[in-house]
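Structure first, sequence second, as always.
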């Protein structure tokens, strides 16, 4: 069924809407919101103007220094809590010398929109904007509010974005269902063509720590056995050598069972078997990340001069925890593994990402809409997002938040996120706007 046929009664001109969405995305990409420094104000003003053109008023949330977020609300009858369409305005830096086009040109090449943010996540923001525009234009009777929220600073932890919203506009956190980045779909999987849409009810929690080793400084000509650098190297050796068992959490269990049911896994493989899970996750880095608490060494600092023993040495570890691991337990375990009072574990950044349920109307409505649009070919693949997003703030506030970017990408497309030559096809933009509008409409029309 071609896009648009799920709303025959509304008479939406999908061709016109797609052209409009395309021109908006190209323009949005041209606004350089690289973080740092961010400068999201220009992006927020752009979104404000696009909303105003449809008669939707909005509010800017200014965290200073041009770090601005924006919210807008379509009011429902209030018989149920709001749905939030969440996105972030900032993008990560580029290395323009590796791009085929200017990363901020918003060029269209063979029906594909190129530029930083096309996938992460100005493209999804435009899909969400189209859901707002359509609900407004077609005067959809809403039982619950639809809130559009585009925030600053997601790529640097959200202090000037979602955390600023939590502090200054907490009413925006009062929501039942939230759609955000965190799961894309696949147009091919294990060499097979497919229409596999991803939905992520949970994500891993960051637990960034610093290991600080202290020892006696001194002249490097005389080893004295209390060398901070040597202690740190030994500690890191123990951390690296420590083997963690693979563990299934609900979203990954559902993901593996969906893959098996749809023939993307040999019949004889049982991923519930611990040994099979270990084997599978040792050959697939992504599966390894979503079945383990992980530790990644990302920095090491020590010493100023070749012949001087420094008094301290530091290493940064980016640890990511499964939804059921508590940071306190993990840090305590890390100290035990290091087993050296001369090496302290300092906590740098952490939050609990939480987990939403797969057993909610959100997931069943998504499944229903996809089947109507794409028939039996459509597969809804539950996922655990290995990175973290702003969704944690909503899960903490009691909402059910889902990573759900309805677009079908190749592995090559996915590699452009935070990489070079990021791009989104116009077909994907149209599909995303259509699916997101229809899912939002059905959920918002229900009490
Ligand atoms: Zn993002």
């Amino acid at each position: 069924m071609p896009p648009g046929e799920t709303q025959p009664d509304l008479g939406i001109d999908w061709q016109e809407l797609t052209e409009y969405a395309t021109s908006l995305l190209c323009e949005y990409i041209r606004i350089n919101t690289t973080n740092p420094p961010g400068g999201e104000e220009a992006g927020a003003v752009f979104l404000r103007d696009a909303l105003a053109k449809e008669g939707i008023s909005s509010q800017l949330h200014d965290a200073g220094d041009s770090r601005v977020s924006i919210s807008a609300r379509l009011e429902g009858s209030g018989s149920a809590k709001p749905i939030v369409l969440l996105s972030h305005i900032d993008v990560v830096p580029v290395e323009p010398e590796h791009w085929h086009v200017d990363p901020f040109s918003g060029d269209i090449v063979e029906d594909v929109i190129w530029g930083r943010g096309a996938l992460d996540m100005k493209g999804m923001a435009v899909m969400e904007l189209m859901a707002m525009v359509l609900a407004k234009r077609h005067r959809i009777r809403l039982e619950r509010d639809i809130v559009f929220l585009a925030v600053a600073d997601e790529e640097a932890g959200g202090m000037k974005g979602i955390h600023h919203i939590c502090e200054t506009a907490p009413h925006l956190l009062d929501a039942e269902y939230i759609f955000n980045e965190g799961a894309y779909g696949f147009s091919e999987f294990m060499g097979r063509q497919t229409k596999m849409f991803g939905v992520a009810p949970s994500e891993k929690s960051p637990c960034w720590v610093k290991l600080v080793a202290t020892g006696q400084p001194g002249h490097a000509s005389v080893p004295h056995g209390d060398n901070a650098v040597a202690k740190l190297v030994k500690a890191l050796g123990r951390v690296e050598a420590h083997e963690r068992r693979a563990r299934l959490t609900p979203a990954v269990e559902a993901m593996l069972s969906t893959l098996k049911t749809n023939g993307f896994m040999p019949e004889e493989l049982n991923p519930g078997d611990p040994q099979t899970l270990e084997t599978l996750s040792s050959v697939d880095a992504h599966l390894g990340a979503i079945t383990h608490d992980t530790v990644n060494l990302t920095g090491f600092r020590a010493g100023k001069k070749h012949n001087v023993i420094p008094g301290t040495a530091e290493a940064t570890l980016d640890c990511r925890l499964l939804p059921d691991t508590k940071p306190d337990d993990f840090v305590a375990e890390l100290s035990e593994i290091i087993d050296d009072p001369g090496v302290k574990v300092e906590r740098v950044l952490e939050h609990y990402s939480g987990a939403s349920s797969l057993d909610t109307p959100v997931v069943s409505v998504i499944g229903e809409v996809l089947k109507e649009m794409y028939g039996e070919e459509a597969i809804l693949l539950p996922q655990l997002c290995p990175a973290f997003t702003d969704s944690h703030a909503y899960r903490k506030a009691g909402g059910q938040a889902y990573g759900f970017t309805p677009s079908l990408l190749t592995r090559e497309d996915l590699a452009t996120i935070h990489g070079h030559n990021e791009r989104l096809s116009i077909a994907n933009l149209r599909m995303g706007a259509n699916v997101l509008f229809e899912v939002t409409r059905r959920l918002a029309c229900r009490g």
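Margin note: Residues 205-350 form a domain with the Alpha-Beta Plaits fold (CATH 3.30.70.360).
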